[in-house]
Design goal:
- The structure holds two protein chains of two kinds.
- By secondary structure, chain A is an alpha/beta fold.
- Chain A folds into two domains: 11-39 and 196-420, no CATH class; 47-189, abc type-2 transporter like domain (abc type-2 transporter like fold), CATH 3.40.1710.10.
- Chain A contains 18 helices and six strands.
- Chain A has helices spanning 2-14, 17-45, 59-71, 81-90, 103-108, 133-152, 159-163, 184-222, 226-230, 236-267, 285-310, 316-322, 324-339, 347-355, 359-369, 373-399, 402-405, 410-420, and strands at residues 49-54, 73-78, 95-99, 113-121, 166-174, 177-180.
- A six-stranded mixed β-sheet of chain A has the order 2-1-3-4-5-6, with helices on both faces.
- In chain A, helix 10 packs across helix 16.
- The longest helix of chain A has 39 residues, at 184-222.
- The radius of gyration of chain A is 29 Å and the shape is elongated.
- Chain B has helices at 42-49, 71-77, 93-101, 108-121, 136-149, 166-178, 193-199, 217-223, 229-243, and strands at 2-13, 16-27, 31-35, 57-62, 65-66, 78-81, 154-158, 185-189, 202-207, 210-215.
- In chain B, 39% of the residues lie in helices and 26% in strands.
- In chain B, helix 3 crosses helix 4 and helix 4 packs antiparallel against helix 5 (136-149).
- Chain B is of the alpha/beta class.
- Chain B has a six-stranded mixed β-sheet, with helices on both faces.
- Chain B contains nine helices and ten strands.
- The chains are: A alpha/beta, B alpha/beta.
- The A-B interface holds A 223-225, 227-228, 230-235, 400-401, 404-405, 408-409, 412-413, 415-416, 419 and B 13-16, 47, 50-54, 72, 75-76, 78-82, 84-89, 100, 103-104, 143, 146.
Chain lengths: 422, 244
Amino acid sequence: MGIRNIIGKEVRELLTPQTLIPIVIVAVIFAMMGGVIGDIGEEVTQRPVIGVVDQDEGELSQIAGSVLGAAARVVHSGTDVAEGLRRTEEGGGVALLVFPPEFSERILGGEPGTIEIHWIMRGLGMMDSISSAPVEGLILAVNNALTVALIEGNVPLNPEVILHPTTRSDTTLVKGKTISGVPPSAIANTLMSQSIMIPLLVMMLMMMAGSTVISSMGLEKENKTLETLLTMPVSRGSIVTGKIVGSAAVGLVMALIYMLGFSFYMRSFQMGAIDLGQYGLALGVLDYLLVGVSLFLALLAGLALCIVLGTFARDYRSAQTLLFPITAMAMIPMFLIMFKDFATVSLGLQAILFLIPFSHPMMAMRALMFDEYPLVLGGIAYSAVFSAVVIAMAVRIFKSDRLLTGGTPRRQRAARARRRTP
Amino acid sequence: MQAVEVRDLRKDYGAQKAVQGISFGVREGEIFGLIGPNGAGKTTTLRIVSTLLSMTSGSVRVFGHDVATESDAVRRILSYLPEEAGAYRNLTGRAYLEFIARFFGNGEKVKDMVERGVEIADLGERINDKISTLSKGMTRRLLVGRALMTDPKLAVLDEPTSGLDVINAREIRGIIRNSTKGGRAVLLSSHNMLEVELLCDRIALIHEGRIVEAGSPAELKGKYAAGNIEDVFAEVVKWASATS
């Protein structure tokens, strides 16, 4: 009897909307992410979409063309590379395969023919490079078909050329930039640190600084220090700003320590990285300044939001629960940006990403590499407005009775409503 | 000039009327006590005077400054000690006093304020210990030191000796009494009727958000033919409950 009473009390105390809602929302987030990753999986299993340019028009290039026509969905066939690129991109293709003049002649002359692969990379998320895998399979199929043709035709060639009749040259077109000699996987690998590290750093920063500021509010209430603080000869704006800046500094130190360790771990994945600077993808001083501004404003917006949420805290424990909306707001863009690019997600997800201020520093560095200044500047402007509005809201709450009275209880609002009803 | 001037003050929390049109004044150099049963509206009144809560209607002026429109000016000359006040547990007692003092000045002024606070708190070497290690009574002494070290023109003290033993409470009462020299004023609330009788020049009795009686302790004792303020309080509350 006694134990049942204790269990009942524990369940009632612990199973509250505050504890349940975060779990439900996390479950929903994972379900949504499963949907996104599932869509990417479907992309992989479908026939790859490509364009073919045959400038050789020889016997072997035609065999290759027929193999490609059977194994892939060919959205363009022609002889002009520029037109081929345009039409393949418009048709949603992932690569344009070019058979240059004298392709067949070179092979029949005993040298491997070169297939020029022009990769069309739409995004820089970890999942955006997956679409290139099926094209690798096509090249293998073309090689096999040419080997068979050379054997059946009894062409007297070096066995090495018969077994490996082609070589390839990769050129990747990504967001308007041409990177020669580099396949998408190498670019994705090089950018992986940014794909993972920056969103993670921003998320950790938001959570740690947010936790500090919300806890500070909870502790002020639990330790009964808030009333004294509010009677000090200092403006409410200074109290709000002081709390935000102090918490941001603490959060920054904590996040940096955390990320220092994580960066060593991530170095192990940096094999085969390329120097992006030689392809014009390095960031300048202005770019770094913009990234800094974007991060600062996102932090400001997040911490102002935490101050507002913190005013609802009754004590330290309830303050921790209130951190959940910030965690969700940091995790949603983090996962989306890790796996997909802003350009490659649906319009609805783009809107969600843009509206969450934490997304902008996560996307800024990658966007600036590809000169997407409107996205970064728009994000900075939005975050500035968002921060200003939320800080104004926080100052307003600090000037009101809410901090000490906790707002008007529901039953009192109901009583007022009853009085207004004739 | 009146130190505090409260006129027809009303405060509603939704449907609940916490303060229902009270008026009183505190003179310079005076200790004025607000007494009443739990939930009578004492703390709400003190919080409004201290610029912490807004008022529904009425007016409150502190040394001529309107608390609603000149709250910054009021905060510069006022010190408020809440009944259940705490302090930052990770700071030492001295660091806490320094933190507060820096809101009121800098350099030598801060140093002087802190020394005054240390003297009032009278915690000896424990002033250098973390507040989390201090007893409830020691923390209260530290908070009283904090409230009076700035030499406020008006000290608003809610249950100033709450949690203190007899000796400590007596000392603190002496400090409060001395703090009114030079025209400073004290507005306090207490459940300790002996304290009210010993300290206050005048008192007002609040019941259900209304002042039902006011005067000096001697006047009130005479009016109700009572031996002490506790008897006056019991008599007035009984009468007010019967007529409300």
